[in-house]
Amino acid sequence: MASKRADPPKTWLRHKWTIKEAYAKGVEFCPSNPQNLGMGTQSYEFTLHHNIPLNTIIESFNIVIVFCDWKVTERLLRLYGIDTKAEQIAKRIEQISKDRSEKMSAQNEKVTYKILMSKFKLDNYEFEGIEQRVTWQPWNIVEGPSGSIRADDPKEKFDNFIEADPSNWARYAVINRLYLVLADLIKDYKQKETQPADFENMRKWSFDLKQVLPSPESFIKSNPMVTFNQAHWRVASPLKSITYKVKYFYAVRKRVHNDPEIMLSPVGRNKLY
Q1: How far is residue 219's CA from residue 140's CA, in Å, rounded to a whole number?
Q2: Is 14 a member of any domain?
Q3: Residue 205 contacts residue 76 (beta carbons within 8 Å)
Q4: How many distinct structural domains can be found in the chain?
Q5: What is the rounded end-to-end Cα distance, in angstroms, of the chain?
Q6: Angle at the Cα of 257 (from 252 to 262), degrees rounded to 5?
């Protein structure tokens, strides 16, 4: 969609501990007997992890706004922090939904999903105006060690912190259900994009999405970004040398969980409702 992905808001600050500071705090992943402690000015790397992968959010966005019912789309936009009553982009997206529906109704020969997408999707310039809010909602962000010192980064899969952070179990369950529907929507669209567009199928996409969308404003308000918490992580083995940054050996970090399949299987979805 956009040629360059948006950075997180500049007001978001990340932890930045030097090895010396971490050692003084008794942080578990600091070397137990570091040499030259006084020289430990190199910072540990922290980053902001997405529960729902960034690519899933971006790929699903135009599919939703072009093919889903406006009421469902409007609710998702609000979850992404967009004021659907005041912002011009929301009015533009509402018009997309109306125009696409009218085109399908008036078409003598059925038009494919791909043709509708190319005609009605937001262009890069339009998306860039809202990209930061869409892709960096605090409810979808967990701060943790960067990929260079993390053993289990799931890349393009759901980043599951349910067992690592049980106090926020309900939050992650809601986000996981949303991820599963968005991922299924992307997969189904790609399989059908050269086929004639079908109202019945689009109604199913809208229905499935509607079932998993939380109340936007209250969900945003009650679920700020999860900042780094040492209790959410454990030292993984084997040890990893990062000699190009600092001449210490220290452990790769890993989330505290057993990757329960219940969260990732179709059967497991129903157990979370």
Answers
A1: 11
A2: no
A3: no
A4: 1
A5: 33
A6: 140
Over the stretch 173-228, which tens digit does the pLDDT of each residue have?
999 999 999 999 999 999 999 999 999 999 999 999 999 999 999 999 999 999 98
Q: Which residues, other chains included, contact 255 with Cβ-Cβ below 8 Å and sequence gap of 6+?
A: 144, 152, 160, 161, 164, 232, 233, 234
- 37 domain residue, yes or no: yes
**Integer angstrom CA distances of residue 121 from 64, 65, 89, 169:** 10, 8, 12, 35
Cβ neighbour number for residue 84 with a 10 Å cutoff: 18
Does residue 238 have a cis peptide bond before it, meaning omega lies within 30 degrees of 0? yes
Q: Which domain holds residue 211?
A: 19-270
The reply to whether 4 falls in a domain is no
pTM of the model: 0.83
Angstrom distance (rounded) from CA 182 to CA 197: 19
- Average the pLDDT over 117-138 and give the result: 94
